[in-house]
Specification:
Elements lengths: L7 E8 L2 H11 L3 E8 L2 E10 L8 E6 L12 E9 L4 H10 L5 E5 L2 E7 L5 E6 L21 E8 L3 H10 L4 E6 L2 E5 L7 E5 L12 E9 L2 H13 L8 E2 L3 E7 L5 E9 L24 H7 L9 H4 L1
Parallel strand pairs: 1-4, 5-8, 9-12, 13-16
Antiparallel strand pairs: 1-13, 2-3, 3-4, 5-9, 6-7, 7-8, 10-11, 11-12, 14-15, 15-16
């Protein structure tokens, strides 16, 4: 059976400040904080997950806030732009909303689609694109009603140091279909309706530098553990060196670095974010895996308190 991912599972990035990140992704963009946990490898650091009402695969962006992190530089071997999809007819609403928060925007186009581009507080590049595809959001927060809310990922623009090799991995390993070339980019399509359109640079990009404002990795969807095992075998047979299966509590993961320098993860859709707390209250409590629970008091004392709040601009 040919392996074809349905698209992006999640994107993980580095930022500096936890509350500033919550204010931007929940307060401004209206995403739900679906999970507040820690970096399992560095428990003194939050791991924050933002997505739609249920944290569905294809909607979630995650962050490691490191207050002392160096400033990164976006470049080859990274995700250059994270793309979100919004309902058709709502780009005007989003342009006005971002202006209200004094966030500079740029209007441009790629592959015939109008794009609204801007940066988050750390310089992570974001764009909004309006499309019919993908289920509508059921989440409303602050000044973002559900009928104008972000649906999930539209896709991503990948910056590769070896774009032909990255393209080959997307087509021959991940099962994306090459659609077209336009100017400096080639577009590929995954099988799903969210996080499914991936653009790759044509000319090699100078290497980026990891740090605040850059993406650490992009994760692709696997249907379940059985599918995940097939993916790992395929990646290994394709000449890469995937990690062992890693339990991330809310999904299982494998990682490998493709030859253009981008760190790929393949993550399972289940079990999801409601496995350890009620869906109605996800994101309100710090959730810890069992092996860190005995150290909860110490961990909580080391983390700066954060809150999801309606921002002043939406209270006026």
């Amino acid at each position: 059976m040919t392996q074809r991912t349905t698209g992006i599972h999640h994107v993980t990035a580095f930022v500096r400040h936890a509350q500033e990140t919550v204010d931007f992704y929940s307060g401004v963009l209206g995403l739900r904080l679906v999970k507040k946990t820690i970096n399992f490898d560095a428990p003194e650091v939050y791991h924050l997950y933002f997505g739609n009402d249920g944290g569905s695969p294809g909607t979630v962006i995650t962050f490691f806030p490191w207050p002392t992190s160096r400033k990164g530089r976006i470049g080859g071997g990274q995700v250059g732009i994270t793309s979100y999809v919004v309902p058709v007819g709502t780009l005007g609403f989003w342009k006005e909303r971002l202006a209200k928060f004094r966030i500079p925007t740029t209007e441009t186009s790629r592959f015939g689609e109008s794009l609204l581009q801007f940066d988050d507080p750390d310089g992570l590049r974001i764009e909004l694109v309006a499309r019919e595809a993908g289920p509508a959001s059921r989440w409303a927060f602050g000044g973002v009603p559900a009928d104008k809310a972000i649906k999930g990922f539209g896709g991503a623009l990948l910056l590769s140091t070896a774009p032909d090799r990255t393209a080959a991995v997307l087509e021959n390993v991940m099962g994306l279909r090459r659609l077209a070339r336009e100017g400096d980019y080639v577009r590929f399509q995954a099988a799903g309706d969210l996080g499914n359109l991936i653009d790759v640079n044509v000319a090699p990009a100078a290497p980026g530098i990891g740090g605040a404002g850059t993406v650490h990795h992009i994760a692709w969807r696997a249907a379940d553990d059985e599918d995940h095992a097939r993916w790992r075998s395929l990646v290994e047979e394709s000449g890469f060196h995937p990690t062992p299966f890693i339990d991330r509590q809310y999904f299982n993961a494998i990682y490998f670095r493709e030859e253009g320098g981008i760190l790929f993860e393949i993550a399972t859709d289940p079990p999801g974010f409601a496995r350890d707390e009620p869906a109605e209250t996800m994101g309100e409590k710090l959730m810890l895996p069992d092996w860190y629970e005995p150290h909860r008091e110490q961990i909580e004392q080391g983390l700066t308190p954060i809150e999801v709040r309606v921002l002043e601009e939406d209270r006026q």
